């Protein structure tokens, strides 16, 4: 079990000794937003989720910032609109990670005494394993593509989806077995779909869109229409549209999902880094 630190907000932020001096942990404020962006933009792909949590998804997130001698040394956040308790963080040192997450858990009761999900690169995964209990994990690859290496496929056409398509999108998400889907997705960025007649049979949508980086996903094909190039066409069209909004586009795919990885490589995506989709107990 983790040691509980006092709630950290405003002037009552918890302070802990960290090497050469005290470290302050507090909730993200407007004054801290610019230096926090600068800290996270050092690694925009690794910190993509955090960049979305302090910008597009800010209203649904609790975000904590660690400072040492007035320099940002770590950020941690939880996104409250997911059905599964979750966290994400970036920290300069393991001690910073531990203190950030202790404070995050103290502020958010939904993170206590139950498995909490995180998507972490190897070094951050090891940091959390040093002080929290690992429940389970599996490997996902972060795959990215450049505008000049994106290969648009020959095949079925894809068109942009709108509000009128939401019922069909939700039905497709259920039929395809998407684990995380909400109709608010269309408010986060573009989505594209392929049709057989009037029937939506495949789609790809935006997970989040920031000026720095966009994650695409929600790739789904109806079971009766698989292996016909529909998902590839929808993903390619969405990727092309996403590059009009940000310079970096990526998606996540499970290591074991070989058909999807093959499809994305055919479009020009390459693995950037492996991540652990893990659950921990605090």
Describe the 3D structure:
Helix content is 26%, strand content 34%. With 282 residues, it is an alpha+beta fold. The chain folds into two domains: 10-131, Gcn5-related N-acetyltransferase (GNAT) (Aminopeptidase), CATH 3.40.630; 144-275, Aminopeptidase, CATH 3.40.630.30. The strands form two sheets. It has an eight-stranded mixed sheet with strand order 6-13-7-12-11-10-9-8. Strands 1-2-3-4-5 form a five-stranded antiparallel sheet, with helices on both faces. A hairpin with a 2-residue loop joins strand 1 and strand 2 (21-27). The longest helix has 14 residues, at 94-107. It is elongated, with a radius of gyration of 20 Å.
Q: Do you know the CATH topology of the largest domain?
A: Aminopeptidase
Q: How can the largest sheet be summarized? A: 8 strands, mixed
The chain-level mean pLDDT equals 92
CATH class of the largest domain: Alpha Beta
Beta content comes to: 25-35%
| β-strand number | 13
Total number of distinct structural domains: 2
| End-to-end Cα distance | 6 Å
Principal-axis shape equals elongated
Q: How much helical structure, as a percent, in the residues?
A: 25-40%
* The CATH homology group name of the largest domain: Gcn5-related N-acetyltransferase (GNAT)
Low-confidence stretches: 1-18
């Amino acid at each position: 079990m983790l040691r509980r630190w006092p709630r950290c907000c405003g002037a009552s932020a918890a302070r802990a000794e960290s090497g050469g001096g005290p470290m302050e942990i507090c909730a993200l404020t407007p004054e801290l937003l610019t230096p926090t962006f600068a800290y996270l933009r050092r690694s925009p792909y690794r910190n993509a989720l955090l960049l979305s949590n302090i910008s597009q998804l800010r209203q649904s997130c609790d975000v904590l910032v660690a400072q040492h001698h007035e320099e940002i040394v770590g950020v941690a956040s939880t996104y409250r609109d997911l059905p599964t308790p979750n966290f994400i963080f970036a920290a300069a040192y393991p001690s910073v990670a531990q203190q950030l997450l202790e404070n995050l858990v103290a502020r958010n009761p939904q993170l206590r005494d139950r498995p909490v999900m995180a998507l972490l690169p190897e070094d951050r995964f090891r940091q959390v394993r040093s002080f929290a209990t690992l429940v389970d994990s599996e490997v996902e690859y972060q795959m990215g593509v450049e505008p000049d290496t994106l290969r648009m496929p020959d095949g079925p056409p894809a068109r942009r989806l709108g509000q009128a398509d939401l019922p069909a999108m939700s039905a497709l998400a259920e039929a395809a077995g998407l684990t995380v889907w909400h109709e608010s997705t269309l408010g986060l960025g573009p989505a594209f779909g392929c049709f057989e007649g009037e029937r939506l049979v495949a789609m790809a949508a935006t997970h989040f869109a920031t000026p720095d980086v966009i994650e695409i996903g929600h790739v789904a094909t109806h079971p009766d229409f698989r292996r016909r190039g529909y998902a590839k066409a929808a993903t390619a069209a969405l990727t092309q549209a996403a590059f009009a909004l940000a310079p970096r586009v990526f998606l996540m795919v499970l290591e074991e999902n070989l058909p999807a990885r093959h499809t994305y490589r055919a479009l020009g995506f390459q693995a950037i880094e492996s991540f652990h989709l893990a659950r921990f107990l605090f």
